[in-house]
């Protein structure tokens, strides 16, 4: 699933490709993706004639800011946007935005898990799914060590579960949680409530640094992720533990281990992340 750095990269690419374009028509071939309104034809009618003012992002959600509405798009596991070329759309192309200048934006999703919600402009943050999101670890002054420490003290969960909870922090996923915990020297299965404030402050810094570095590198292409131009990211070349089970730790040489924590495959170094 694309995480914050990948969605941020897609956002920037789509802003360059579609900013200022006017939607002439929309073709919805998989109506279940349209969650609000619950009628795909109503969605088509409302966005037709609207101009894309700019593309935003909240957590893992893309926000298409139109004249009067905001389309909130979640890519889920395999969703991706691309500008249409000369080739015909394939069977995984489920939504097509036709622009008045003759270009076309396609939404493709192998698993069909992606969603789109349409809100009146200004209402998107007040409604689900955005309403429940916590602060962001990227360019958000609310995400401080003090905030994270308070949230950890109020739970009996392990630290990885806390970091993956979008109500606590918006945008983090499996890859960047494992990487940040490694850099902070904290085991993923450590109880969040007993971690010292000093170590939580360090973790907050490592989370932000990891996200900033990943955004700089265009995200991590560990599976099928590409941006709107079809380009892969490069941060996967710098991963310390994620996807490196059995390989030597770049810092101490111990074999990277993998277990299940928070219901997710979790990578860590037993030498650098001691109990």
Automatic annotation (TrEMBL):
Cited InterPro entries: DNA_glyclase_Znf_dom_DNA_BS, FPG_cat, FPG_Glyclase, FPG_N, H2TH_FPG, Ribosomal_uS13-like_H2TH, Znf_DNA_glyclase/AP_lyase, Znf_FPG/IleRS
PROSITE patterns from the UniProt entry: FPG_CAT, ZF_FPG_1, ZF_FPG_2
Formamidopyrimidine-DNA glycosylase catalytic domain boundaries: 2-114
Domain of life: Bacteria
Cofactor, free-text remark: Binds 1 zinc ion per subunit.
Pfam families to which the protein is assigned, alphabetical: Fapy_DNA_glyco, H2TH, zf-FPG_IleRS
Cofactor: Zn(2+)
Keywords: DNA damage, DNA repair, DNA-binding, Glycosidase, Hydrolase, Lyase, Metal-binding, Multifunctional enzyme, Zinc, Zinc-finger
Domain FPG-type: from-to ranges: 240-274
Enzyme nomenclature, EC number: 3.2.2.23, 4.2.99.18
HAMAP family per UniProt: Fapy_DNA_glycosyl
Subunit structure: Monomer.
Protein known as: Formamidopyrimidine-DNA glycosylase
Top-level taxonomy: Bacteria, Bacillati, Bacillota, Bacilli, Bacillales
């Amino acid at each position: 699933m694309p995480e914050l750095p990948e969605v941020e990269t897609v956002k920037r690419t789509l802003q360059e490709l579609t900013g200022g374009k006017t939607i002439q028509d929309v073709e919805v071939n998989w109506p279940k993706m349209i969650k609000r309104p619950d009628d795909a034809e109503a969605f088509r009618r409302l966005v037709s004639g609207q101009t894309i003012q700019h593309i935003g992002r909240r957590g893992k959600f893309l926000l298409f800011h139109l004249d009067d509405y905001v389309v909130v798009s979640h890519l889920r596991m395999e969703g991706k946007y691309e500008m249409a070329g000369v080739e015909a759309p394939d069977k995984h192309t489920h939504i097509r935005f036709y622009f008045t200048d003759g270009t076309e934006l396609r939404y493709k999703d192998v698993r069909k898990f992606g969603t789109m919600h349409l809100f009146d402009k200004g209402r998107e943050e007040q409604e689900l799914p955005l309403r429940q999101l916590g602060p962001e670890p990227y360019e958000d002054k609310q995400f401080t060590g003090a905030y994270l420490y308070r949230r950890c003290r109020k739970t009996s969960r392990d630290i990885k579960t806390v970091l993956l909870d979008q109500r606590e922090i918006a945008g983090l996923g499996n890859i960047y949680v494992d990487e940040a915990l490694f850099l902070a020297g904290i085991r993923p299965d450590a109880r969040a409530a007993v971690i010292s404030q000093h170590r939580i402050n360090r973790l907050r810094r490592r989370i932000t640094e990891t996200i900033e570095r990943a955004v700089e590198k265009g995200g991590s292409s560990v599976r099928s992720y590409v941006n709107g131009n079809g380009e892969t990211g490069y941060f996967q070349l710098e991963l310390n533990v994620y996807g490196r089970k059995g390989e030597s730790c770049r810092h101490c040489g111990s074999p990277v281990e993998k277990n299940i924590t928070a219901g997710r495959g979790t990578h860590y170094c037993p030498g650098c992340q001691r109990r």
